[in-house]
Amino acid sequence: MLSRTADNLYWTGRYMERAENLARVLDVSSRNALLDLAGSSPESEWRDALASLGNPPQFTARDQKLDEVDVTRFFTLDIESPCSIKFCVHAARENARALRAVISTEMWESINTTWLALRDLDETSLRARGLREFFDWVKDRSHLFRGVSHGTTLHDDAFHFLRLGTFLERADSTARLLDTKYQALAGMDAEAAGATYYAWGAVLRQASAFRAYHQTYHDVITPPRVAELLTLRLEMPRSLRFCANQVVEHLDSLAGTRDLEAQRLAGELHARLRFARIDRVLSQGLHDFLNEVTQRITDLSTQLAQDFLMTV
Amino acid sequence: MTTPPAAPPFLDEMYGLCTLDDFAGRRASGQVRAPYRHIDEWLRSTDQADFASKREEADLIFRRVGITFNVYGDNAGTERLIPFDIIPRVLAADEWSRLAAGLVQRVKALNMFLHDIYHGQDVVRAGVVPEAHLLRNSLFRPEMKGVDVPGNIYVHIAGIDIVRVEEGTFYVLEDNLRTPSGVSYMLQNRAVMMRLFPQVFARARVAPVDHYCQELLRCLRSVAPASTEGEPTVVVMTPGPYNSAYFEHTFLAEQMGVELAEGQDLFVRDNAVYMRTTLGPRRVDVIYRRIDDDSLDPLAFRPDSMLGVPGLLSVYHNGGVTLANAIGTGVADDKSSYPYVPDLIKFYLGETPILGNVPTYRCSIDSDRAYVLEHLPELVVKQTQGSGGYGMLIGPRSTREEQAKFRALITAHPDGYIAQPTLALSSCPTFVEEGIAPRHIDLRPFILTGQNGSVVVPGGLTRVALSRGSLVVNSSQGGGTKDTWVLRP
Q1: What are the beta bridge partners of residue B112?
Q2: Which residues of B touch A303 (CB under 8 A)?
Q3: A147 is in which domain, residue-wise?
Q4: Final residue in a domain of this structure, among A153, A171, A194
Q5: How many domains does chain A have?
Q6: Which terminus of chain A, N or C, has less C-beta within 10 A?
Q7: Per-residue pLDDT tens for B124-138?
Q8: Shortest alpha-carbon distance between residue A111 and chain B (Å)
Q9: Mean pLDDT in residue range A167-191
Q10: How far apart are CA B212 and CA B260, in angstroms?
């Protein structure tokens, strides 16, 4: 496969996943901002949302308010903002456009249809439609993208590159989300059980893990278990370990008989998550642990370029 | 006050000879030319609302599939749909077989001409084409002299524009021998028609065109360099996503199952071309390039071009890679060479041309020029090296100022212009604002030539001038397209 094609596939996967993650974070934040929670305010909700989306300098530079209107505008339809859903879908679509010869017609049409709908959506109709419904739609389109790619393209190198993008982006997003929330909620009054429920329940919802939590633990929501579910549980599709496991598998398929540095890095990351125990992680500091994971993800992305894009 | 001149008659391919004014009467008479019998039944038995909804559906399909083109001069990345008309243009089997034979004959002669002018130049010594014509032509590539290409084939893919003026008379309007585009529309138009109107399609017994890409791949593989080891590797080379025909480039690569490479994906090493893949370098044997000669190799041609591959030309000259089409084919398709083509067919093949040229006046010849300058209001004046309908004068529709401008241009650069009589192009019924009306059409069939001869899939791209009375069919000038049905014998 052409190296450029591999790069386009990887970024198509990443950008679609990023659009979905944006929708998830904004969805839960707008829901929480409606609740009048102890120790929280709409402004702090939006501050957390901004933090878990990486505090983009473009937002602060524009002197915007920390409220629903300004934050959601910036992260949904503002094509000038590299952190908006519209920007990400456009980027995914432009990458996919260079892939017309590689991906299935169904897959192209699914991405293109998503883009055309977003392109024609303005803020007035977005508000009329309702933010929540919009976020659900973005998630649906991302699910469709993954399903269509799974069901209509050959599971060959093209598929593996696409999925590498998906899972690296997802791991990165989960790590950042958990890190932000854990810091923001660390000082929370443990006595206010209701507050824990809402605050951590929101984190779980962002990861589609609310029901999964109860199925796994059959107990009330506690922060250590939320952290475990989102980092170390293999059966949880948005956990760090699940993502790392997928990355290792796709990389192994891509490597064939070669022995690549990226495989070694991915193996290390996976082993770290596979053999960690949540009590040790928490006692040594979740923040440092998540920082280490994001750093490993960054290093792995760089190594992927070395191993597949700069082969000549 | 003078009365306006009577509307000139033309051949409507469905209803026969008519004018813009009496078209409705012709329709009402109920008489249609034989190939359109099924179209007639279909138009009569379907109500207007159904057509409207099908037209919307067609639009939606085109947009969703992303069959768009980028317009020069627009903002980069602006994508437009070429309007698609749902009434097909139909050719009877015998009309087509004569056309196809004429096209193959013409391309054969043009290939022989190209080989000749880059080798012995018999055609010049025989006095068929003046030497000055070649030397003055900026599209003649001296560096191709003495270069041998596999099978002496220069034009692997030709798109030849045909117009019809009378019942039995087809003319060649233009040869496109460099990187002719439009074949993806031929294929997509067909796919859309089969999806929207399966019944009428089946009743009419239309010959299929879907195998075009298989034939193209077969043709490209057949011209791989003799030194190729194993199965030849073919790529489609594109200037990139901002090229107006990018959709077509991706489509062809997809249909053939080959890589779509940009210049940056290819490189030259040890007298061979390679592509950069995730597994390292991979040798490339045949490049179907959709990029013009000047941009192919920044070392050889335009140093400012970022689109090409440095060193590609030296590999090509040493026979390490095949380019389709070959370099230097432009000299055979520019409008100053066009008038010679019937003579070339006689010279190389000893045959009478099956398809004629439109009568053409060459402004470089004194008597022709004098005639042209006298009759500007009746003629169509074209630049010899222009393309896409830019820079032409359509006499009957021009203003005095435009005529004066062209008079000055022709006088200053007689070599740069040819002129042709305004043709009464045939028309085909087309859906427009006011309902069904005749609109003028042309046809671009695609001729593939490899080591095993030439193939023309039965069909082509029918372009239609959508405004009333207009003769300009170019998509860049507001033209649309139709599916082209060649009926089975």
Answers
A1: none
A2: none
A3: 1-153
A4: A153
A5: 2
A6: C
A7: 999 999 998 888 888
A8: 9
A9: 83
A10: 18
